[in-house]
Design brief:
This protein folds into two domains: 234 residues, 2-Layer Sandwich (Nucleotidyltransferase, domain 5), CATH 3.30.420; 214 residues, 2-Layer Sandwich (Nucleotidyltransferase, domain 5), CATH 3.30.420. It is built from 17 helices and 24 strands. A hairpin with a 4-residue loop joins strand 11 and strand 12. The chain is globular and about 70 Å long. The protein has a seven-stranded mixed sheet with strand order 18-19-17-16-22-23-24, with helices on both faces. Strands 3-2-1-6-15-14 form a six-stranded mixed sheet. The protein is α+β, with helices and mostly antiparallel strands.
Length: 493
């Protein structure tokens, strides 16, 4: 059985035709751009997504016919919280309001008295990222669009409709809306009331791995594929990426080290006493949940440092190991805070700022770089500690740009006090989507079996904790926390 995986990213959409065993047969990629407006507004033309998907399917259909490789199932995974108001025919009524859009900040501030109540029902704090705040914005600020809206669709819902004629979504996207009761996986009347959203304007909720419908005659005619192919929702890109990275055992943590740092781990039920230091969402594995945490700057902090202190270095990342080789744990006393864009979990402090401390005339740029990298690791360690309030953690599965540095990976193992594993898997999101769909279609019994077949042979490297360094880093982490609290008070003056 062959699966066409459509992976909807922020800057591009990829289509990958896989065999069930993980062999890649064909790859198509289409790029697009968001529209950046004033006052933090980020939009995109929904036709970018529709046309990209149509072209990907069309080109894959040509390959399929030429190479006699069937397309048996279409599978979709996507960015999670962008909103498109559509009419009964699935036509967009305006540009998509993207997940990065900040126009709902004032609405979120207004909802402050209800944060605790909302969090207990849906597992997330009120934040401009989540789709429910965007729907409330339309009702308040564009009542003309709100009244005409048949459904508020996130991007996958919009694409499902154009493939199948059905308005459906799955729990992973619902759990990023502030509108879905996390324990019942249904739209919640109290949340709808607080967000001022009419339930009839929302798509039908289904479990991830569900068939959302079958390709229509119209879509088949536009693309050249067969009518009646099953279309499966694999769930959100972060959920799928976690599975594709190999986080299929209870206790695994998936850590993506990109522009920011993003952490996920599995929990088998919604924690009874959930605090604000994590976000709880639906998993792509039906009946399970994930805890999410994040830090806002990883490679973006490193890019800032490179731009200001290593401008002459053409291969900055390639030379990280060499640059740091002679700098001991603790960076000769130099300390840093990595909050260049504020702090998300566990403290949710948008006013937090970065800092370098304890600098003397003997402090080198290498010391400062080491201190910055240590602070990034220690903040991630703080988030792992938040996870451990609810679930045990065992190993950290890393990916992303910063994970290519050997010295940084060893530093991570020393700071976290856990096994750190890096695996060569450039298509982790698409692979995770394949795993979800293949289990749904009975190709495999479990996610673990699917992963072992699809990516079990991938090259990997483990980094083990050096206990003497871990002991030092635990003390430094406490010191970093004290510096943060002092800076927090200072910025209130």
């Amino acid at each position: 059985m062959n699966f066409l995986i459509i992976d909807v990213g922020t800057s591009s959409m990829r289509g990958i035709l896989f065999r069930a065993n993980g062999r890649i047969l064909h790859v198509v990629q289409k790029e697009y751009r968001v529209i950046s407006l004033e006052n933090g507004r980020i939009e995109q033309n929904p036709l970018d997504f529709k046309n990209s998907m149509t072209e990907i399917v069309k080109e894959t259909a040509v390959f399929s016919a030429q190479e006699k490789e069937a397309i048996d199932v279409i599978v979709l995974t996507s960015q999670r919280s962008s909103v498109i108001p559509v009419d009964r025919e699935g036509n967009h009524l305006c540009n998509a309001q993207m997940w990065q859009d900040k126009r709902t900040v004032s609405i979120c501030q207004e909802m402050e008295p209800y944060h605790r109540e909302i969090f207990q029902l849906c597992g997330s704090r009120v934040n401009p990222v989540f789709s429910g705040t965007k729907m409330k914005w339309f009702r308040r600020n564009r009542p003309d669009i709100y009244e005409k809206t048949w459904k508020f669709a996130v991007i996958p819902d919009y694409l499902f409709y154009h493939m199948t004629g059905n308005f459906c979504t799955d729990y992973t996207y619902g759990s990023r809306s502030l509108l879905m009761n996390l324990k019942t996986c249904s739209w919640d009347k109290r949340l709808l009331e607080l967000m001022e959203v009419d339930e009839e304007k929302l798509c039908e909720l289904k479990a991830p791995g569900s068939i959302m419908g079958y390709t229509t005659k119209k879509f088949a005619g536009e693309t050249g594929i067969s009518e009646g192919l099953p279309v499966i929702s694999a769930g959100g890109d972060q959920q799928c990426g976690m599975l594709g990275q190999g986080a299929v055992e209870y206790g695994d943590v998936s850590l993506t080290l990109g522009t920011g740092g993003f952490l996920l781990t599995t929990c088998r039920e919604v924690p009874e006493y959930l605090d604000w230091d994590v976000v709880c969402n639906a998993s792509s594995v039906t009946g399970e949940y994930i805890l999410e945490a994040s830090m806002l700057t990883c490679t973006s902090a490193m890019e800032w440092f490179k731009r200001n202190f290593y401008r002459e270095e053409s291969d900055f990342y390639g030379r990280l190991n060499e640059i740091l080789s002679d700098i001991p744990v603790g960076a000769h006393g130099c300390r840093a805070l990595p909050y260049f864009q504020g702090r998300s979990t566990p403290d949710w402090n948008s006013s937090a700022a970065a800092a370098f401390c304890n600098i003397t005339l003997n402090t080198s740029r290498e010391d400062m770089l080491k201190a910055l990298m240590e602070s990034i690791c220690m903040e991630i360690r703080n988030n792992i500690s938040s996870f451990e309030k609810y679930v045990p953690t065992d190993r950290i599965l890393i990916n992303g740009g910063l994970s290519k540095s050997e010295s940084f990976n060893q530093m991570q193992a020393d700071v976290y006090g856990k096994r750190v594993v890096r695996m060569d898997n450039e298509e982790s999101t698409a692979v995770g989507a394949l795993m979800v769909a293949a289990v749904a279609m009975k190709e495999y019994r479990t996610m673990k079996e699917a992963f072992l077949t699809v990516r079990g042979g991938a090259k990997r490297k483990e980094y083990l904790t050096r206990e003497e360094n871990h002991v030092i880093y635990e003390k430094l982490k406490e010191e970093m926390g004290e510096i943060y609290q002092k800076m927090k008070e200072f910025r209130k003056i």
